């Protein structure tokens, strides 16, 4: 696993053998960042279910202002911190170890807002992803001009949600699907 572009281009991230995680492949990551390239500079990013930090570190390398990482596994958090140190990005990041729902609630109470929220829970936890999408789509954690991205198994299709946020793009990449949500009211304003 390596950083594809930006200030840390070419750096190989540490991924210890034996950890039960599914890092986002370079192909999926490259497709993702090609799609959101214009959204990244100076963005405040939330990387939930961060694993070793692959997505958030790529965002920082490409010019994101700050990334908040959420990861439940203490072992994964140790690797994540090691990768941030390797890329000298500790000062632009915050790392939370614990349950994503509880940490999202804490961030909400702190009035935090993000331009991009990236969700990548374990593929088999589709109910968790659906519930989290429904909670986030109209929450104050995401700016109205923001973007919510869900990485999930190609076999999962999120339910339609009653929200001003709509599925604006979907990319199927082998066993992985990336679903992109934008606020349709903001989309209409930019088209006028």
TrEMBL record:
<protein>
    <submittedName>
        <fullName>Methyltransferase</fullName>
    </submittedName>
</protein>
<keyword id="KW-0489">Methyltransferase</keyword>
<keyword id="KW-0808">Transferase</keyword>
<dbReference type="GO" id="GO:0008168">
    <property type="term" value="F:methyltransferase activity"/>
</dbReference>
<dbReference type="GO" id="GO:0031167">
    <property type="term" value="P:rRNA methylation"/>
</dbReference>
<dbReference type="InterPro" id="IPR002052">
    <property type="entry name" value="DNA_methylase_N6_adenine_CS"/>
</dbReference>
<dbReference type="InterPro" id="IPR029063">
    <property type="entry name" value="SAM-dependent_MTases_sf"/>
</dbReference>
<dbReference type="InterPro" id="IPR004398">
    <property type="entry name" value="RNA_MeTrfase_RsmD"/>
</dbReference>
<dbReference type="GO" id="GO:0003676">
    <property type="term" value="F:nucleic acid binding"/>
</dbReference>
<dbReference type="Pfam" id="PF03602">
    <property type="entry name" value="Cons_hypoth95"/>
</dbReference>
